[in-house]
Structure formats: structure tokens, C-alpha cells
Design goal:
Layout (H helix, E strand, L loop, with lengths): L1 H101 L1
């Protein structure tokens, strides 16, 4: 009887130790999981922020390219208009000179 009770006592102690160890391991695993979730949340936020910065940069470059293109087009148009005005003035002068020669 006494040996059987001793074995039961030892068995209960081992079960209690195993339960305590399981609980401790569960707490450690939960802490690691929480730390990993926090780490990945920070990484995800950092990635989203970097992507947003890249999008802003690309958009800014596109806007600058559009503005530069518009300015270049305006300059070309202005130059073309100036050339047309000069050509028109020369044409008028040549016509006047030709009329003067005829008259």
C-alpha cells in the first residue's frame, strides 16, 4: 500500500511539474508570438510608408516633367510665333518693295 501511495504521489508531482512547465512554455510562446506580431506590424508600416514615399516622389517627378514639357512647348510656340511674325513682316516689306518698284 505504502509503495503504491508513494508512486501516486510521485506521479502527481510529475504531472504538476509538467503542467507548470507547459504553462511556462505557453507564456513564453505567447510572448514570442506577441513580439513577432509587433515586429511584423512595424515592418509592414515601414514598408507602406516607404511605398507611399516612392509614390509621392514618382508623382512629383511626373508633375515636374509635365511642367517642363509645358514650358518647353510654350517656348517652342513662342519661338514659332516670333518666326511667323518676322516672316510675315518680311513678306509685307517685300510686297511693299515690289509695289514700289512697279509704281
Amino acid at each position: 500500500h505504502s509503495q503504491r501511495e508513494e508512486l501516486r504521489k510521485i506521479g502527481r508531482e510529475r504531472v504538476l511539474e509538467a503542467n507548470a512547465l507547459d504553462a511556462r512554455l505557453d507564456r513564453q510562446e505567447a510572448a514570442v508570438d506577441a513580439a513577432e506580431r509587433e515586429h511584423f506590424a512595424r515592418e509592414r508600416a515601414s514598408t507602406y510608408q516607404a511605398a507611399a514615399e516612392v509614390r509621392r516622389h514618382v508623382l512629383q517627378e511626373r508633375r515636374q516633367a509635365v511642367a517642363s514639357t509645358a514650358a518647353a512647348r510654350a517656348a517652342v510656340h513662342s519661338a514659332r510665333s516670333a518666326v511667323e511674325v518676322i516672316a510675315q513682316q518680311r513678306g509685307e516689306r517685300k510686297r511693299e518693295e515690289a509695289k514700289a518698284l512697279i509704281d
